[in-house]
Amino acid sequence: MTEKLEPVFITYAKPPKKKKHYVNNVDLFDALVIHREKVQAAKEAGKELPRIPHYIGEAIMKIATHLAYKPNFSNYTFREEMISDGIENCLLYLNNFDPAKSKNPFAYFTQIIYFAFLRRIQREKRHLYTKYAAIEQANIMGATSENQGGDNKSYDTDIKYGEWSQEQMERFMKDFEESSVAKKAKAAETKEAKLNTQ
86 lies in which domain range? Predict the structure, then answer.
């Protein structure tokens, strides 16, 4: 009697995929060190500062663009302005990167861009609040002013927005005002705490 052999399945482990980074941190660091040396040499010689190398500019642009597509920044309509602000701030503080303190320029630039994005969002919120306040003021003035000869339409029917956008506008304004009050209170507490420690 012959024995029945069971089939043997051999599984091959796939090698782990290497994560492809869109910016090579080591190459960026090396490029920044070389650029920093050129900048210091130009300052000592009293010459014009050298241009930022194409590789560094491209890396900064990639970091800003990729950060703008993260979920916490992706739904803003002014994303291009955010990216521009981030790139501008990186170029302003490029020469402040100190290789002796950090070997991670990717994190350095990401942090600069992140805070540039937050400042742009706050600026846009203030602008939107001003716009909504102006619309609300115009509606109040339009509702209280008397109709001029034969004008049967009130001002608020001329502005094309529905109840939903009116509610959204009021909610945004309320949230913005509460946030502003909270920030002022926190700033006052911080200032008072500093005065008490001195």
Answer: 22-119
